[in-house]
C-alpha cells in the first residue's frame, strides 16, 4: 500500500539552486550547512550588516503578533540563534515550552549558550532536525515559527507540509523571510547593497565574503510573496496571508491548521 509521502522528493534526483549556482539537490544541504557553520559565531553581526540592524525590529514585530498564549507549545524552526525563542518565552510563560529546531549543530549550540547566559533554561528544548522531515508527532504544537530559514531549505514544499502536519487544529504557522522589494526606485539601491556592499562587509568583518554572497543570492531566488502564500495553501494551511515589512524587504506569512 503506497502513501503519498512515500513518493521520492523531486529534489532527490535533480538540481536546485545554491544562490545563483545550480547544484545537485543532494548537495545543497551540505553547502548551506557549511555557510552556517562558518558564520554561526558571527550570525547576529551578519544580520545587522545585512539589514542595517532592522532585523531586530522585524523579529520583535513578528513575535509580538504571533497567536500564542501561556501554556502553549511552540516549535521554532531554524531557531539556532535563539532570538525568536527569547522573544516568545515570556508569552508562553512557565507552563509553556519552546522547542528550538535547527539543522545546524553549530547554530544550535550558539543559541543554547546565548539563552543559557541570559538565564533562559526552563521550558526550552533543542533538537537538531531537518525541516523537511520533522521528528515530531502529528498535531503536537500550537504555533510553529520559522524566521529567515525557509529560503535555505532545499524542498520548501516538504517543509511547509511538515509544519502543517505538526500543528494542532487551530494552531498557527508563521514564516518571516526576505521577500521581493515592491518600490521600483528602491530595487537598484537594495541590489547594490546586497551584491556590492555585503560581500565586502562579510570579507571585512568575518573574513568570509562567499557566505555573504550566498545569503544575498538566496534572497533573490526565494519565492516572492504571492507564490509563497500559494505554497502554504498547497501544503494544507488555511486562511493564508502575508504582510510586507520595510517595503517588502521582508514579509510575514501566516497560515492556520483548520
Automatic annotation (TrEMBL):
GO terms for biological process: methylation. It catalyses: a 2-demethylmenaquinol + S-adenosyl-L-methionine = a menaquinol + S-adenosyl-L-homocysteine + H(+); a 2-methoxy-6-(all-trans-polyprenyl)benzene-1,4-diol + S-adenosyl-L-methionine = a 5-methoxy-2-methyl-3-(all-trans-polyprenyl)benzene-1,4-diol + S-adenosyl-L-homocysteine + H(+). CDD domains: AdoMet_MTases. It is an enzyme of class 2 (transferase). S-adenosyl-L-methionine binds at residues 81, 102, 130-131. The keyword Transferase applies. The lineage of its organism: Bacteria, Pseudomonadati, Pseudomonadota, Gammaproteobacteria, Lysobacterales. Keywords: Menaquinone biosynthesis, Methyltransferase, S-adenosyl-L-methionine, Transferase, Ubiquinone biosynthesis. PROSITE patterns: SAM_MT_UBIE, UBIE_1, UBIE_2. Pathway: Quinol/quinone metabolism; menaquinone biosynthesis; menaquinol from 1,4-dihydroxy-2-naphthoate: step 2/2; Cofactor biosynthesis; ubiquinone biosynthesis. GO terms for molecular function: methyltransferase activity. It comes from the Bacteria. InterPro entries: SAM-dependent_MTases_sf (IPR029063), UbiE/COQ5_MeTrFase (IPR004033), UbiE/COQ5_MeTrFase_CS (IPR023576). PANTHER family: 2-METHOXY-6-POLYPRENYL-1,4-BENZOQUINOL METHYLASE, MITOCHONDRIAL (PTHR43591:SF24), METHYLTRANSFERASE (PTHR43591). This is Ubiquinone/menaquinone biosynthesis C-methyltransferase UbiE. Its EC number is 2.1.1.163, 2.1.1.201. Methyltransferase required for the conversion of demethylmenaquinol (DMKH2) to menaquinol (MKH2) and the conversion of 2-polyprenyl-6-methoxy-1,4-benzoquinol (DDMQH2) to 2-polyprenyl-3-methyl-6-methoxy-1,4-benzoquinol (DMQH2). The keyword Isomerase does not apply. Belongs to the class I-like SAM-binding methyltransferase superfamily. MenG/UbiE family. It comes from Pseudoxanthomonas daejeonensis.
Amino acid at each position: 500500500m503506497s502513501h503519498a509521502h512515500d513518493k521520492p522528493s523531486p529534489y532527490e534526483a535533480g538540481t536546485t539552486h545554491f544562490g545563483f549556482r545550480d547544484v545537485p539537490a543532494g548537495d545543497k544541504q551540505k553547502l548551506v550547512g557549511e555557510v552556517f557553520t562558518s558564520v554561526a559565531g558571527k550570525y547576529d553581526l551578519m544580520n545587522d550588516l545585512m539589514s542595517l540592524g532592522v532585523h531586530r525590529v522585524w523579529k520583535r514585530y513578528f513575535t509580538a503578533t504571533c497567536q500564542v498564549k501561556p501554556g502553549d507549545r511552540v516549535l521554532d524552526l531554524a531557531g539556532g540563534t535563539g532570538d525568536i525563542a527569547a522573544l516568545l518565552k515570556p508569552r508562553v510563560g512557565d507552563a509553556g515550552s519552546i522547542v528550538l529546531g535547527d539543522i545546524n549543530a553549530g547554530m544550535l549550540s550558539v543559541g543554547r549558550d546565548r539563552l543559557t547566559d541570559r538565564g533562559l533554561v526552563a521550558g526550552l528544548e533543542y533538537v537538531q532536525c531537518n525541516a523537511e522531515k520533522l521528528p515530531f508527532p502529528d498535531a503536537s504544537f500550537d504555533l510553529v515559527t520559522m524566521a529567515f530559514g525557509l529560503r535555505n531549505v532545499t524542498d520548501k514544499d516538504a517543509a511547509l507540509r511538515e509544519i502543517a502536519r505538526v500543528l494542532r487544529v487551530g494552531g498557527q504557522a508563521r514564516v518571516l523571510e526576505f521577500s521581493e522589494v515592491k518600490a521600483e526606485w528602491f530595487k537598484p539601491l537594495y541590489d547594490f547593497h546586497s551584491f556590492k556592499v555585503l560581500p565586502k562587509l562579510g570579507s571585512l568583518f568575518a573574513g568570509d565574503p562567499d557566505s555573504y554572497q550566498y545569503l544575498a543570492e538566496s534572497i533573490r531566488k526565494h519565492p516572492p510573496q504571492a507564490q509563497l502564500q500559494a505554497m502554504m495553501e498547497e501544503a494544507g494551511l488555511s486562511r493564508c496571508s502575508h504582510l510586507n515589512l520595510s517595503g517588502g524587504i521582508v514579509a510575514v506569512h501566516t497560515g492556520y491548521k483548520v
